[in-house]
Amino acid sequence: SQQGEEDPQALSIQEGENATMNCSYKTSINNLQWYRQNSGRGLVHLILIRSNEREKHSGRLRVTLDTSKKSSSLLITASRAADTASYFCAGGATNKLIFGTGTLLAVQP
Amino acid sequence: DAGVTQSPTHLIKTRGQHVTLRCSPISGHKSVSWYQQVLGQGPQFIFQYYEKEERGRGNFPDRFSARQFPNYSSELNVNALLLGDSALYLCASSLGVSNQPQHFGDGTRLSIL
After folding, report:
1. For residue A4, what pLDDT band results from cuts at 50, 70 and 90?
2. Min CA distance, B56 vs chain A (Å)?
């Protein structure tokens, strides 16, 4: 079963704009992770935020976590055409990741 | 350093057959996890192995089994293949069991005819 859902399911923006994706999850987690997947390839880890953290930055990425609302958001600033991919959130439990349904991001040059 | 490698990259089988998928983790990683990704969905957890012991199992039938070898590589076996087993099978490795980023291979694309 999926952990939760990403919102929106699909997002199309112009290069240079910011992209925001939201994720809701269902169960208790130790951490929340975000991954990127290019078509037909494996997933690439982007960022991990622990359950006792509220915000984390990595380069052009900013992640927030609200455990009371069981939600997270991923902000990609100054997007590039190379950011075009599917983005997944995943709730980290003791021994597994439970993935959401993903957001398909298209960045138009 | 080499990333997670999976073999084969593509596989075509018929219903009722069995399949073995292989995974080599990043050097130094002792945990290997397997995921099934059906087209258009997020990956679903199948198994986690750490130090050659099963540490977690997802909601998959007993037709799915796995093992981890002393060199930390892993095999996923699926028996009595069904059409619904068609998917991308992903292997991920990490240093430890929990609170770790997972490093994924590019997967094995399994098609059942």
Report:
1. low
2. 6
